């Protein structure tokens, strides 16, 4: 069993815990919406629940029989079964305690994931559902005796004002805004056996709340008497680990060590992911969050080729710099299982109309299949191209994230061939990745200098690949 790299030790080897009764409860009722069959817990999950729900001895001078921890931070790599742990801890509070339970996350949609799993378990378990009123998707799960309710709330400090709860489950703790942890603690301060629990992956330099909690964890682990009611359980790879080191992966991924997730699958997945993403989400290590190169220079050099042999049928990608100082038109085309790309035009201080005329001319001359644009700054160009009958694929903000990650994977898989254009070479070295919530994209702001040629290339490659999967997205 893979134990956390760092964790708060129990008060004694034979500590009392509510974890055993929760483990028994979950064995009787926990089913997933995907399969509706019982989901057995991993041994490491049982270990964690027993430690999180540690109790003081009944003869303790100050807190006889109370739950030891009032604050808990749990950190591990992605896809380990965090929603089962969070849902189980919410169900524990609903079943065995009086008071409200709150799920928090960076968005209501994310917070609802855990809520939905708990609701499904209650709805599917006849003897359990009798203890609750008719559950709903939006208004909460209320106990029939009126002693508590399970609700969802966005993780905003203002939304927490005046809320009293016996348990708060904060998902995606690396995205938590400053003040939300303090607000949640205040909401539990007047209730015995109340807990605030964060379940998260590692963050970056902007994860201020998580950084503060990690610092507290270090202090408590080094000296448990400094804050006996703070628990930390952190699975992470050792510093400077190789990305593909099996021991490093297992250190951050207890579900891999126990065999539920095959190591080979993880290795295959990370082979096409950038280093910063692997370190953060697979090795559960903090990253700087800025100046992370979007693509290793070696991968870019390996993609060196001859560009596009025949431009007809290609996708054009278009990008502009601030204040229209520069604009670039790139093309990309699928050839067999690979993609050829090259820069078609680079303009200095073009007018909007001049850029549109050039795009239209290229499209008419070469039977271009679509033009890909970043919708965030090119609304007018999009409109003018549509008026001229040009098929346009408009990339919205969330699709920008997908495009960047997809193109990275294409380079990593050796499926891209460019023609070593000097402008593209220079801009690739300038471009850096920046996280936006759970996802990353190539950042104009953090990159050093213009990257319009690189972004135009990415938009063209992404849409060329997306056309094959789902047809052209014309808007």
Helix percent band: 25-40%
Uncertain residue segments: 469-475
Mean pLDDT: 88
Given the helix and strand composition, which structural class is it?
Answer: alpha/beta
User: What is the number of strand segments?
Assistant: 19
What coarse outline follows from CA principal-axis ratios?
Answer: elongated
What is the CATH topology of the largest domain? Rossmann fold
Radius of gyration, Cα only, in angstroms? 26 Å
Number of domains: 2
For the largest beta sheet, what order do the strands appear in spatially?
1-10-4-9-8-5-7-6
The total of helices stands at: 17
| CA distance, first residue to last residue | 52 Å
Features:
475 residues, alpha/beta, Rossmann fold, Nucleotidyltransferase, domain 5, 2 domains, eight-stranded mixed sheet, disordered C terminus
What this model shows, in words?
- By secondary structure, the chain is α/β, with parallel strands linked by helices.
- It has two domains: 6-241 and 246-256, P-loop containing nucleotide triphosphate hydrolases (Rossmann fold, 3-Layer(aba) Sandwich); 297-470, Nucleotidyltransferase, domain 5 (2-Layer Sandwich).
- Helix content is 38%, strand content 19%.
- It has 17 helices and 19 strands.
- It has helices at 19-29, 43-52, 82-96, 108-124, 126-129, 180-188, 208-222, 246-252, 254-257, 263-270, 275-281, 297-302, 352-366, 379-387, 397-412, 422-430, 452-470, and strands at 6-7, 16-17, 54-55, 71-75, 101-105, 141-142, 149-154, 167-171, 195-200, 230-234, 292-293, 315-320, 326-335, 338-348, 370-374, 392-395, 416-418, 432-436, 439-443.
- The strands form four sheets. The chain has an eight-stranded mixed sheet, sandwiched between helices. Strands 16-15-12-13-14-17 form a six-stranded mixed sheet, sandwiched between helices.
- A hairpin with a 5-residue loop joins strand 12 (315-320) and strand 13.
- It is elongated, with a radius of gyration of 26 Å.
- Mean pLDDT is 88; it is low at 469-475.
